[in-house]
Amino acid sequence: MQCRPRLDLLNAEEEARIRDLVLLGTRPDGWDGDEPTADTPHATPSTPTERCSPS
Known about the structure:
Structural class: mainly alpha
Distance between the termini: 45 Å
């Protein structure tokens, strides 16, 4: 098995700031804290035609 190099999208300062904001209960504009989390399954279209339907 070949390992890939690690890729960080946030630096340590950005990560620390985000963690501080979470601890303070700070939310982005329009959010109330009841949004689903990344581990919550959500419905996805089963066929490409459902994904690409014209508006």
